[in-house]
Amino acid sequence: MIRIYAGHIIHLGFFLSFFLSELASKVMVELLGTYTAENASQAREDAQRCILAALADPNTFLLDPLLALKPVRFLEGELIHDLLSVFVAEKLPSYLHFYQHHKEFVHSLGKSIR
Predict the structure, then answer these.
(1) R_g (Cα) of the chain, nearest Å
(2) 47 and 69 in contact (C-beta within 8 Å)?
């Protein structure tokens, strides 16, 4: 007979949610990697969601690979791409500068990245 305690269920639930989140992120990056320069614009919303998910994920520390994705590169010049670039290549003062000049945009993204 296998005994499962409430604590085990909580840990299992946490592990599953972490694993599924990690898997979903990997799948999203893999899918975005299949787009070409010709059709990258079709993945605009997915690229934005991928950036936001990566920025909001406390377990994601390496964001550089996102910049190489063609749908993400398609977003160059937009605030979401600028924000990703700040997280990839800059330090806290640059983020604070970005935030000061684009507060409404940052607030529209939600609490997850502030």
Answers:
(1) 17
(2) yes
Give pLDDT tens digits for 61-98.
Answer: 899 999 999 999 999 999 999 999 999 999 999 999 99
* Alpha carbons 78 and 87: distance in angstroms, whole number: 15
- CA-to-CA separations, 82 to 2, 10, 86, in angstroms, rounded: 52, 38, 6
**Residue 67 in tokens:** 């910049």
Distance CA 68, CA 35 (A): 11
- Residue-wise DSSP of 31-76: HHTT--TTTGGGGHHHHHHHHHHHHH-TT----HHHHTSHHHHTTT
What is the rounded average pLDDT for all residues in the chain? 84
**Using CA atoms, how far apart are residues 8 and 41, in angstroms rounded to an integer?**
44
Q: Please, what's the largest Cα pairwise distance for the chain? A: 61
State whether residue 77 is helix, strand or coil: coil
Alpha carbon 60 to its chain's center: 8
